[in-house]
């Protein structure tokens, strides 16, 4: 997609206070594109749609679609968890969300569909990957109404092409998965999906070719007991149990890709070669995980560009930061590229598509711990900006001047060789044959 087409889809937007991110959308409350106004009113009367129960947390972009996830943190009032906004039609600055691919797939408790999803990812083969937590509620109110399952959709046809139910041994009693990363190899069948188990302290791996999954456990997945105190949006609270959450893959190239990751209740970054994850756990796996330096903030989301620039949200600072992966990972080599103490309160997710950084902010702690004003306040915002403009003149735009073979190792003295630019692999188009783990239709779901 050309830059001109992208800018055309983006349309006019207002500048945020950061003067670096442009505000694309803003909502006081989330609404949905019901078939008619009468059906919308009926949905509100029945409790099927309760505006105050809808909080968007994740975004993804594919061509003319902006995907937005809305988890079901209550047992009623969220009509659809996986949604999109068309970017190529006229709309208001607060557009209504369209269920993707349809209403039926988003029916609560439909275990062949999606009950609750948090963060969603598009791969190089035009597929949307969605992890359904199968939960309704949050914290002590959580109900596991469906098992954890991974779904894929062919974005060219909007067809549901995969549902894989994770095995009992992949999860535990504390499992809570809110993030995934998708790793495409030499072909569209060579795919591994990594899912971070935030409260069960594990990393799940799914292989499309093997149609199998397995689980890693490591001390690096646990929270830092010194980093459980949070101050966001004028609130002080403790999330001391929050483990592995944010993940980002290095660019595709001739070298082994790395998966960067970090717990939410921690400022430290870690990484592991993806070859370790693909090989399943063994006696040597544990020592292949490596620790890096620290950030100045807690973070839930990170993403790396094809040039090796990592963007990450800084939820304590109402900001987004960057790091050039050709330099050691440390706070000295990181810089804030956008900050807004009103518009960026809890920048929940960050994505890079078509040369642009996208950010969604949702004031999540205020929603969960305090109370949002859905009548007078703007609560949810989506921003974007060209990557080149964001990093121009920052430390992330600098080129390394040290010897890669010396102490100035790009990942520090304990790292591996420097990250290579992305290489172009011959990707085969996705097969039109469904790749279900089992047929989605005409098969009832049975628990136990």
Automatic annotation (TrEMBL):
Protein name from the UniProt record:
Protein yellow
**Top-level division of the source organism's lineage:** Eukaryota
This protein's record includes keyword Signal:
yes
What InterPro entries does the entry give?
Answer: 6-blade_b-propeller_TolB-like (IPR011042), MRJP/yellow-related (IPR017996)
Annotated coiled-coil segments of the chain = none
Leader peptide range in chain numbering = 1-18
Give the family this protein belongs to, as stated in its UniProt record. Belongs to the major royal jelly protein family.
Subcellular location, record wording: Secreted
Q: Which UniProt keywords apply?
A: Glycoprotein, Secreted, Signal
Q: What does this protein do?
A: Controls the pigmentation pattern of the adult cuticle and larval mouth parts.
Is the keyword Transit peptide assigned to this protein?
no
Supply the Pfam families for this chain.
MRJP (PF03022)
Residue segments, region Disordered: 427-448
């Amino acid at each position: 997609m050309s830059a001109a087409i992208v800018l055309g889809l983006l349309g006019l937007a207002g500048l945020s206070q950061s003067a670096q991110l442009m505000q694309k959308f803003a909502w006081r409350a989330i609404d949905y594109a019901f078939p008619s106004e009468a059906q919308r009113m009926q949905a509100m009367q029945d409790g099927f749609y309760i505006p105050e129960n809808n909080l968007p947390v994740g975004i993804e972009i594919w061509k003319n679609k902006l995907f937005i996830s809305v988890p079901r943190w209550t047992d009623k009032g969220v009509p659809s968890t996986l949604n999109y906004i068309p970017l190529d039609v006229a709309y208001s600055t607060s557009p209504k969300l369209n269920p993707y691919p349809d209403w039926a797939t988003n029916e609560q408790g439909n275990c062949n569909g999606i009950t609750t999803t948090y963060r969603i990812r598009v791969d190089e083969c035009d597929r949307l990957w969605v992890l359904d937590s199968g939960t309704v509620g949050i914290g002590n109110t959580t109900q596991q109404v469906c098992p954890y399952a991974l779904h894929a959709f062919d974005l060219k046809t909007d067809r549901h092409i995969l549902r894989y139910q994770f095995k009992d041994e992949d999860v535990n009693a504390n499992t809570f998965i809110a993030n995934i990363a998708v790793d495409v190899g030499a072909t569209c069948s060579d795919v591994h999906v990594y899912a971070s188990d935030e409260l069960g302290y594990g990393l799940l791996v799914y292989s499309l070719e093997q149609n199998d999954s397995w689980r890693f456990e490591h001390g690096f997945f646990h929270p830092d007991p010194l980093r459980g105190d949070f101050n966001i949006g004028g609130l002080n609270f403790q999330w001391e149990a929050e483990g592995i959450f944010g993940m980002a893959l290095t660019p595709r190239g001739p070298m082994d890709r790395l998966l960067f990751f970090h717990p939410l209740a921690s400022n430290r970054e870690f990484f592991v070669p993806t070859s370790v994850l693909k090989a399943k756990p063994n006696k040597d796996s544990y020592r292949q995980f490596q620790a890096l330096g620290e950030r100045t903030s807690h973070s839930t989301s990170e993403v790396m560009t094809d040039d090796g620039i990592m963007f990450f949200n800084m939820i304590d600072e109402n900001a987004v930061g960057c790091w050039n992966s050709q330099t050691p990972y440390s706070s000295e080599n990181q810089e804030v590229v956008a900050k807004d103490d009103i518009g960026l309160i809890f920048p929940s997710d960050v994505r890079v598509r078509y040369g642009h950084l996208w950010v969604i902010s949702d004031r999540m702690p205020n929603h969960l711990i305090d109370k949002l004003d859905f009548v007078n306040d703007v609560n949810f915002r989506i921003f974007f900006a060209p990557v080149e403009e964001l990093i121009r003149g920052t430390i992330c735009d600098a080129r390394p001047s040290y010897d890669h073979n010396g102490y100035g190792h790009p990942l520090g003295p304990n790292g591996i060789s420097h990250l290579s630019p992305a290489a172009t692999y011959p990707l085969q188009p996705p097969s039109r044959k469904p790749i279900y783990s089992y047929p989605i239709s005409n098969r009832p779901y049975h628990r136990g």
